[in-house]
Each structure stands twice: as C-alpha cells, then as structure tokens.
Write a structure and sequence with these properties.
heterodimer, A: 302 residues, alpha/beta, Rossmann fold, eight-stranded mixed sheet, B: 394 residues, seven-stranded mixed sheet, six-stranded mixed sheet, binds thiamine diphosphate, binds magnesium ion
C-alpha cells in the first residue's frame, strides 16, 4: 500500500533512534530515519564504513533498533548477499521460518568507487537485496576527499581547485545490470522517497536507490539549509527524481520550471571559487540541461 | 559406527564430500587453482540435490569471505575455500571474521604467491594470515583433510570457541592426489558435528549491532577477548580430535611426534612434506641413527607446551619453513619453535631449512642432507649457519 501523505510516514514506528553523533543538519540521519520507518522491524541493516556507521554505532551505544552489521568499507553488497543467501537457505531447509528485508545503507565512496565490484556482483546475480546509496558526493568520514560521485567543479580536500570530471552515473550502472527496481530520491520529497523504499523492498530481486544527501561540513552550508538544498538540486534538474521498473524509466516528480543551477551552487561553500566563473557555470548549467532533456523536465526560468 | 567402503578421492574431493555430509547451508567461493575442483564438486552436489545449500558465486574472494561472514552471522553453516592470491585478497576480512567471532570454515589449497606467478605448493599464502585470529590446521593426507573438516565445524561452532577455522592442505600434492578415503556415515557426521541455531546472530526478534565503532576505551579489551578465545580453543581442538578418534579410529593430535622419545635430532615440519620426513626417519632409524620428527598439525593457536614435551631432550632441532618472512630474524615456523624453546628456558641448537618453494620437489635425499647437517652440529657442537636454502641454485 503506497503512502498517501507525509502523515502516513510520520506515524510509523522509529527504528533509528535520536542521540547518535551525526552532525546537526546531516541528511544521512534523515535518510536513515525515513528508511527505517518504511522497512520496519523485520529488516537487517548492512552499513559500509563511513560517516553513518561511525556516528551511529559508537560502542557501547547504538542508534539501531533492528539487527545491524558493519563489516568493512567495500563489501556492503557482498555482506548483504551473504545474509540473503543464509536466510533463503535456512527458510528452504525449514531451520527458520520468518523472512527479512535485507537493506544496505552505503556512502557514495562505498558504492561508486571501492564497493562497485561487489555491488555489480550482487546485481548481476539477481540477489534480493535493497541497496540504498546515501550520496554526499565525497569521502566525508575521512575528511572530504573527492569520490567518483563528486560533482563537476566541487572543491574537496583532494580536488582543491575543483573536481574536473562529472559524477559517475550510478543509476545508469544499476539499470545496465537489469536490476528489478532503481530510483533516485531526495529528502525534500519524502512521500516520493518513502514510496520508492517501499517498492524497492517488495521486489523479487535487487533494487537500488540513489539518494542525494547534503553534507553541511563537506558542502559548506548552514545546517538549516539541508532540505532547501535537497529541493534545489531537484528544481535545477541536477537531481531528477525518477524510477526504473520493468525496463522503463519514469519521472516521478516533474519540474515544470527549472531554477538556474547558480541558485543551488551559490548556497554552498564548495562551489565558492566558481560562482563568478562564467565558463564553469555554463558547463554545469549545460549538464543540468542535458539531464532535463533526458528525463523530460521543463525549461529554466530565471 | 557403521563400516563404510573407502572412496577414492583427492584432497579437494574429500573435503567436498565432508561439506556435503555436514549439510552446509551457504557456500560462497571464487575459482583459483588448485582449489577449483573442491567448489566444482560442491556445485555438482547442490545441482543434483544431494546437498541442500545456496551456492553464492561471487565476483571475488573478498566478497566470498564477506558473504560467508554475514551468512554465518545470520545463523547459517557456511563454507568457503581459496588459495594463494585469493587468500591474500581475503586478508582484510579475515581479521574481521575472527574478531566478530563467526564460525566460518575455510579450506585452503596452499599455493605459492606471486610474483612470479606460480600455481604450485608452498606456504607463502598462509603465513601472511598468521595474525588474522583464525584457528589454523595443517594436514598430511586426503583422509586427514576429510576428518578435519568434520571436526572443524564442531570446534568453530562451539559456544566456547566461536572462531573461524582454516584447514590447510598442500596444493596439488594433496588437493589433486587421489587416495582411498574412509568416510564416516552421514548420521555419524550429523551426531558428531550437529548444527544448532546459535545466538547472538542477526535476528530481528533480538536485534544487536555487529561491527560497532570502538574508541580507545574499549578497543583493547575487545581485541583481547578474541585473542583469549583463540588461546583457550587449544584444549577443545585437542579433545575434539580425541573424540573423533573414538568414533572413527583416527586421531592425529595437535602435534604428531614420530620416534622423538630417544632422538638426538628432531626435524619439525608441517603439511604433506611430513610424510617424506617420516619416511626418511624410518630409513635412518633402520641404520641405527637416533633421529625423530614432529609434524605440527595446529599452527594457530601455536601448541608450544605440547611441542616442547616431545623435543626437550633433543641435541639439535631442524625446522622446515616453506615460506619466507622477508627481513625477519628467521622463517615463520622457526621463529615460533625457537620462541617456545626460549620461553621454556631451553637452549637447543636449532636450524631453519627453507625448501620446496613454488612446488620445487623435495626428495628423500634432501631430507637426509638436512639430518646430516644436524648430525654435524651434534658432533662438533658448532652451528655454522642458522638457515639453509635446500636445493637453491646459483
Ligand atoms: C579499504 C579501506 N580503505 C579506506 C578506508 C578509509 N575510509 C573509511 S570511510 C571512507 C570514506 C567513506 O566515504 P563514503 O562511502 O562516501 O561515506 P561517507 O563517509 O561520505 O558517508 C574511507 C576512505 C577504509 N576504511 N577501508
Ligand atoms: Mg560520501
């Protein structure tokens, strides 16, 4: 049953507790909270090494009210496949009777870079797992180094004069593996996101959600802007909200009038060095225009 | 016990047969010579329905061990195997498997490591795994490999142990040589190593967090617990071997001495080469020479006390190392044995013999040469060198 209003989501039980150590305004905490409300009690969470993991599991405390496992940085998908395989085998052999949702929460580094091989394996085998990448567009836990998901132009500690390449197309990679379901998500569009998580866990095979996660420290913005930036990413066309199912890609949130990318970039310190550089802005704007054309978004209106 | 006809099996196939009888739930593995035929056979058992298990054909050894760890964390009985480069690729996750205390069982067809690439046997792949916190067993035959796999699950899944185990069989030499193997019956396997749904595990009705982040205030204690578990597992490993002996008539010990009681010279070895050494000892004994040998069956936890008991009266000790520990004081096995001697306040002349790297043939004559070197030491009281590279050219 799809969620009809935000209220349908809010009333659901929390399995991700407050009191963790993530930053004020951290989008990852909001993603984790919503995911947990949707997937519920009978779920196992697999987390790759990164901000979410270190900040929510400081021994002897934990923010997780469901079984949670962290093994390493690059193997979240393989760890998930092992759990899926174990539950399937134990249920088949009547050693266990209750099934679980196997849900990964992994950073962009753990997904697009070091963990891509394990993820590809899990997708290709058709393992029934839901893999959610919370994408803060850099290796934040180790101090803001660029990843394969860092956007063009962004400052990081290892791209001090701006990233020279465009983001890796994780959705394209997932779709190329013929996963059962793939979707992008944003915390500014909760209803859309929650329904995507619900769909993802109902699939009889691998599902993937790519979720943009503004990071106050790494992107350099005021914590109160997390949701606003999430919305602007969608409004500019830089983060189109769509889903892939049954061979077809469908836009889930239309943007009839797009905002210029500058509106999004100027609120973030990581783009400070380019907001007065016309050439760079044109490059990023045409990247957004390309995405808009691909997904059928509206034109830019100043 | 039921009497069962022997099967003609290679080391790999003997292990696969045991895995089938143990009713393993999840197998995750990646092909590498000389481990491949083990997993091929298991695949066949599964596809014919003779073993009800999930076979996870992962894209790398790193994922194989990761999936085994998490499948074990979910309560499943798991198996994996590897060799050489594959084992090296697992390295990172081996530490985590033991520290998180999951009873993964892995068979390793020991093979040389690159470079240069070489598919033959030595212990270059296993020695870098010494400090990963796993129980490490070595065997001399396909029969012993079969027996040890059955014992391994019983040990690993014991609540007092809850540690992963590696069973090392020499690649090619044991993995691919066919021998008669006497299996025990399926029901004997089931009663000797019964599966139980253990706790704690990844269970929504009893949620726990596994793999937490630890500050300096708890890290030391956590690591110490795994260390202690490994050290405390030694008597359990020894007892399981004895109990298996009562069931099957085959018991190996954690060290296996031969003619050590009155021996002046003792040669210590590990794995299949022990058979050659034992044969050499027999020959030399026929000539009246007071020589003996000891085969180490357990490398981690290292059986210091048991070893010392058999070698303490020797006048010279030779240690065979089948891997380098580059830049170290000596080879890995030599270092263990001499540390054990030192801690027992024993100063017995000891010499390290490196041989059989990358599958280089080791002949009876080589072993006799070693005994001759040791004999000279006993006679003259002089140690010319602490290490020899047997058969090295140039
Ligand atoms: C094999 C390995 N290499 C490097 C690291 C160091 N490391 C830990 S977390 C991390 C970055 C994580 O980035 P991401 O997946 O994007 O998650 P985030 O911290 O941004 O949430 C790195 C490089 C590690 N733990 N393991
Ligand atoms: Mg990141």
């Amino acid at each position: 049953m799809p969620f009809k209003s935000i209220n349908d989501i809010i009333v659901k039980q929390d399995f991700f507790s407050p009191g963790h150590g993530l930053c004020a305004g951290c989008g990852a905490a909001q993603i984790a909270r919503i995911v947990m409300k949707v997937v519920g009690k009978d779920s196992i969470i697999i987390n790759s090494t990164g901000c979410l993991e270190v900040s929510t599991t400081t021994y002897p405390w934990t923010a997780w009210k469901v079984p949670y496992i962290h093994v390493a940085f690059e193997n979240a998908a393989a760890v998930a496949s092992g759990i899926r395989s174990a539950y399937d085998a134990l249920i088949m052999k009547k050693k266990l009777n209750k099934d679980v949702n196997v849900v990964v929460l992994a950073g962009d580094g753990g997904t697009a870079d070091i963990g891509l091989q394990a993820l590809s394996g899990a997708f290709e085998r058709g393992d029934r797992i839901t893999y959610i990448c919370y994408d803060n567009e850099a290796y934040m836990n180790t101090g803001i180094q660029r990843s394969g998901a860092t956007p063009y132009g962004a400052w990081t500690t290892t791209s001090p004069s701006g990233q020279r390449t465009f983001k890796k197309d994780l959705m394209g990679i997932a779709i190329a593996h013929r996963v059962k379901y793939a979707a992008t998500a944003s915390i500014a569009y909760l209803l859309d996101a929650a329904n995507k998580v619900e769909k993802a866990i109902s699939m009889n095979g691998p599902s993937f959600i790519h979720w943009l996660q503004p990071c106050t420290i790494g992107w350099r913005f005021d914590p109160k802007l997390t949701v606003k930036l999430s919305r602007l990413a969608v409004k500019t066309g830089l983060w189109p909200l769509y889903e892939y199912y049954d061979g077809a890609v469908k836009l889930t949130v239309q943007v009839p009038k797009r905002a210029p990318v500058l509106e999004y970039l100027k609120l973030q310190g990581r783009f400070r060095h380019i907001i007065n550089n016309k050439n760079e802005l044109v490059k990023i704007q045409s990247y957004a225009d390309e995405l808009a054309a691909k997904f059928g978004l509206g034109p830019v209106s100043e | 016990m039921q009497i069962i006809e022997p099967l003609t099996l290679s080391g790999n196939l003997a292990i696969a047969y045991a895995v089938k009888q143990l009713d393993v739930d999840v197998v995750a593995a990646y092909p590498i010579t000389p481990q491949t035929t083990m997993v091929e056979k298991i695949s066949e058992y599964i596809s014919k329905g003779e073993l009800k298990a999930n076979l996870l054909l992962v894209e790398s050894e790193h994922s194989a061990i990761s999936a085994c760890l998490s499948a074990a964390a979910s309560g499943a009985r798991v198996f994996t195997s590897s060799s050489s480069q594959g084992l090296l690729l697992m390295h990172e996750i081996l530490f985590i498997t033991s520290a998180l205390r999951f009873p993964v069982v892995m068979a390793i067809a020991n093979r040389a490591v690159s470079a240069p690439i070489n598919i033959w046997n030595d212990h270059g792949d296993i020695m870098p795994q010494r400090d990963t916190g796993w129980i490490q067993l070595f065997v001399e035959s396909a029969q012993e490999a079969y027996d040890k796999v059955i014992q391994a699950y019983r040990i690993a899944e014991d609540d007092k142990v809850r540690l992963p185990i590696m069973i090392n069989i020499d690649g090619i030499v044991l993995s691919h040589t066919y021998e008669p193997v006497y299996p025990i019956s399926d029901s004997d396997v089931a009663s000797f190593s019964p599966w139980n749904l253990y706790s704690p595990r990844l269970d929504p009705d009893n949620p726990i967090t596994i793999g937490a982040f630890c500050y300096p205030d708890y890290y030391f204690e956590t690591r110490y617990q795994s260390l202690k578990a490994l050290n405390d597992s030694l008597p359990i490993i020894s007892n399981v071997d004895k109990e298996f002996g009562e069931l099957s008539g085959r018991s190996y010990g954690i060290v296996s001495p031969f003619k050590c009681d009155d021996a002046d010279i003792i040669l210590i070895s590990m794995g299949s080469i022990s058979m050659t050494v034992r044969a050499a000892v027999k020959k030399l004994r026929e000539k009246g020479e007071k020589v003996g040998m000891l085969s180490l069956k357990l490398f981690r936890p290292f059986p210091s006390k048991e070893l010392i008991r058999y070698i303490k009266n020797a006048k010279a000790i030779g240690i065979i190392d089948r891997a380098f520990s580059p830049g170290a004081v000596a080879g890995p096995v030599f270092t263990e044995v001499t540390s054990a001697l030192y801690l027992s306040k024993m100063d017995i002349p000891s010499v390290d013999f490196f041989l059989g790297l990358g599958g280089r043939d080791v002949k009876m004559e080589d072993i006799k040469d070693i005994f001759n070197i040791l004999k000279r030491i006993v006679k003259t009281g002089l140690i010319e060198r602490h290490s020899y590279y047997i058969g090295l050219r140039g």
